[in-house]
């Protein structure tokens, strides 16, 4: 593994300039991803880390019906934010389910959005067939033991899973990411931020080199909407999701209004289930409707030996969370 140089940024423009000028440079915030990749797994590409941990990019602010979350806000701080507790239960539940208390005190929101896959083939540098690390080399996970892998947005080129819990409700809520680079600032809907692997599994998002996530705008749920995040995992303590679902909706006279649904544990990216939302919208709040939505959400999955179980488990997860938020008895 190459020696990694450490530089502390003094301000936002300086940090951006340092990273943009060096193709082998990357940002360092909480370090829970970079430290794993570079120091533990030895698969990271960066040889220079620019520490942005002391820049003024932490904290939250309510702006009308939007919660502005700055990139260096920790998971722990966001989970205890009064606005999140009152208006965004699904976000808080995902934060609390997403890591150990120690990690939540370190991990930042910006870093969570950019965390790399937990695919063991990607993180084992002895594995040569990994299109995400070495484009064109193949995907060992397709032919090897697979369990914690994706079935939606996957193909023979890559089945690496996007492991974030937090991004699942953020995608459901139509959160917007604010970016700053040498060419100025821009905004990207989180639903358009990630790229399905397709022919280029190594290209994971729309970030240009040197661009910095400065904050995320999260729309607040209207009064009367109920929401929840349900995570299915092998053990109750810190563990990644086998399947998960974030849902928000309101029910008026037995009819579903303004449904929002996103899935985790099954997608190569945080998966917005728009086809399921179409099934739910203006439909009766019944178990049959929820099952129909689940069928629409997990249509045409790409499975390999070891991931077939996720198809039915994901559907049951969707039905369960929809029953919870709608008040329909199980």
Automatic annotation (TrEMBL):
Record has Transferase as a keyword: no
Domain annotation FAD-binding PCMH-type: ranges: 1-223
UniProt keywords, alphabetically: Oxidoreductase
InterPro entries: CO_DH_flav_C (IPR005107), CO_DH_flav_C_dom_sf (IPR036683), Diverse_Substr_Oxidored (IPR051312), FAD-bd_PCMH (IPR016166), FAD-bd_PCMH-like_sf (IPR036318), FAD-bd_PCMH_sub1 (IPR016167), FAD-bd_PCMH_sub2 (IPR016169), Mopterin_DH_FAD-bd (IPR002346)
PANTHER family: OXIDOREDUCTASE (PTHR42659:SF1), XANTHINE DEHYDROGENASE SUBUNIT C-RELATED (PTHR42659)
Name of the featured protein: Xanthine dehydrogenase family protein subunit M
Record organism: Pseudonocardia adelaidensis
